[in-house]
From TrEMBL:
<dbReference type="InterPro" id="IPR017846">
    <property type="entry name" value="Nict_dMeBzImd_PRibTrfase_bact"/>
</dbReference>
<keyword id="KW-0808">Transferase</keyword>
<comment type="function">
    <text>Catalyzes the synthesis of alpha-ribazole-5'-phosphate from nicotinate mononucleotide (NAMN) and 5,6-dimethylbenzimidazole (DMB).</text>
</comment>
<feature type="active site" description="Proton acceptor">
    <location>
        <position position="310"/>
    </location>
</feature>
<keyword id="KW-0328">Glycosyltransferase</keyword>
<dbReference type="InterPro" id="IPR023195">
    <property type="entry name" value="Nict_dMeBzImd_PRibTrfase_N"/>
</dbReference>
<comment type="pathway">
    <text>Nucleoside biosynthesis; alpha-ribazole biosynthesis; alpha-ribazole from 5,6-dimethylbenzimidazole: step 1/2.</text>
</comment>
<dbReference type="GO" id="GO:0009236">
    <property type="term" value="P:cobalamin biosynthetic process"/>
</dbReference>
<protein>
    <recommendedName>
        <fullName>Nicotinate-nucleotide--dimethylbenzimidazole phosphoribosyltransferase</fullName>
        <ecNumber>2.4.2.21</ecNumber>
    </recommendedName>
</protein>
<keyword id="KW-0169">Cobalamin biosynthesis</keyword>
<comment type="similarity">
    <text>Belongs to the CobT family.</text>
</comment>
<dbReference type="InterPro" id="IPR003200">
    <property type="entry name" value="Nict_dMeBzImd_PRibTrfase"/>
</dbReference>
<dbReference type="InterPro" id="IPR036087">
    <property type="entry name" value="Nict_dMeBzImd_PRibTrfase_sf"/>
</dbReference>
<dbReference type="Pfam" id="PF02277">
    <property type="entry name" value="DBI_PRT"/>
</dbReference>
<dbReference type="GO" id="GO:0008939">
    <property type="term" value="F:nicotinate-nucleotide-dimethylbenzimidazole phosphoribosyltransferase activity"/>
</dbReference>
Length: 347
């Protein structure tokens, strides 16, 4: 619900958009994007982001022991080193758009001996328990995840970040994300996907693991902390806390593919208001991604047949957001350019 000032600002933004030298609404979704950013910043002409950052929440999952991913668990650890060395897809794309890459150890099964300003140790444990055998973590750990995620967002914003991106890394992430989604009532048949390209048998094992997780843990869909504790992962809880805090501080936050959208699902179940600050950077190829985005009424900016994660799709959407901001700030109005308005616009 918008208050009177927000409603007034919205009208002012729409009036400016309609006075720019273009047919009414001809810039489509770009106009919606800049309206949302304007309402977030409380300005008709929003500022361009000056400090763009992606935070990759990395952790291991006990469920990976069930053969639910096409890759071995060690890849989580190895990819973190790759991120820190600047060699992953997210590094390349972030350099391209001028964003900084931060890596969070939310609970990887391994220790890091790195001193790097872009590495954040927020370890809750050495991977979660296998949730096909019992809860992934304790309720205390789940609460700690949310708290750590909030703290990471707080520190990011206090040190100047004005556009945040959520990224994920963790072998077994799409299984855990699916278990979270199914716990909240999504149909497994609409959600289940091959993730990093598992084969038919792997997909069967994945389905079984998700079903077993729900069956034996009985997560309470009205209690998001319970869902996180029973069938979640350390990185998912931290993503949720990060999104909640970003929204509280009125900083736009971009989600990426299926796993980060499961993080949003947890946050949304704690506070529906987060959606005013969240953008879906892209739609990934994972089947359930569209299903969840549609349920949240979030329209993705890009649709590039990607299925990677790390924040890659979201980071690539940043130039579109920037172009939308430049559009409202730099385009001439009909008056300033001496261009004739449409017949219906002339009163
Ligand atoms: C080399 C490599 C780099 C990645 N970067 C992101 N992911 C992505 O794949 C994982 C989830 O897929 P699943 O649920 O099938 O295990 C996550 O780590 C995700 O970020 C990667 C996966 C691999 C193998
Ligand atoms: O949707 C994603 O972002 C995704 C898909 C497959 C593996 N990891 C992430």
């Amino acid at each position: 619900m918008m208050n009177i000032e927000e409603e007034f600002l919205k009208q002012q933004i729409l009036e400016r958009l309609n006075n720019l030298t273009k047919p009414i609404k001809s810039l489509g979704y770009l106009e919606d994007i800049v309206l949302k950013i304007g309402l977030i910043q409380g300005k008709i002409i929003p500022d361009l982001p000056k400090d763009k950052r992606v935070y990759i929440f990395a952790a291991d999952h006990g469920v990976a022991a069930n053969g639910v991913s096409a890759y071995p668990k060690q890849v989580t650890y190895q990819m973190v080193l790759n991120f820190l060395n600047g060699g992953a897809a997210i590094n390349v794309f972030s350099r391209h758009v001028g964003a900084k890459v931060y890596v969070v150890d939310a609970g990887i099964d391994g220790d890091f001996d790195v001193k790097n300003d872009y590495f954040i140790s927020a370890k809750i444990g050495y991977g979660t328990n296998d949730f096909t055998k019992g809860p992934a973590m304790s309720r205390e750990q789940a609460e700690k995840c949310i708290e750590y995620g909030r703290k990471i967002a707080k520190e990011a914003i206090e040190s100047g970040a004005d556009l945040l991106v959520v990224g994920d890394m963790g072998i077994g992430n799409t299984t855990t994300a699916s278990a979270i989604a199914v716990s909240f009532g999504f149909d497994i048949d609409e959600i289940l996907d091959i993730g990093t390209f598992i084969d038919k048998d792997g997909l069967k094992r994945k389905r079984k693991a998700i079903q077993k997780a729900i069956e034996i843990n009985n997560p309470d869909k009205n209690d998001p902390v319970d869902v996180l504790a029973k069938v979640g992962g350390f990185c998912f809880g931290q993503m949720a806390g990060f999104i909640l805090k970003s929204a509280e501080e009125k900083i736009p936050v971009l989600i990426d593919g299926f796993p980060t959208t499961a993080g949003l699902l947890l946050a949304w179940n704690m506070d529906h208001n987060v959606l005013r600050y969240v953008f879906a950077g892209h739609r990934s190829m994972v089947k359930g991604h569209k299903v969840i985005l549609d349920a949240l009424n979030l329209r993705p900016i890009l649709d590039l047949n990607m299925r990677l994660g790390e924040g890659t799709g979201a980071v690539l959407s940043i130039p579109i957001i920037e172009a939308a901001i430049k559009m409202i700030g730099e385009m001439s109005t009909f008056e300033s350019a001496g261009v004739s308005k449409g017949v219906d616009q002339v009163k």
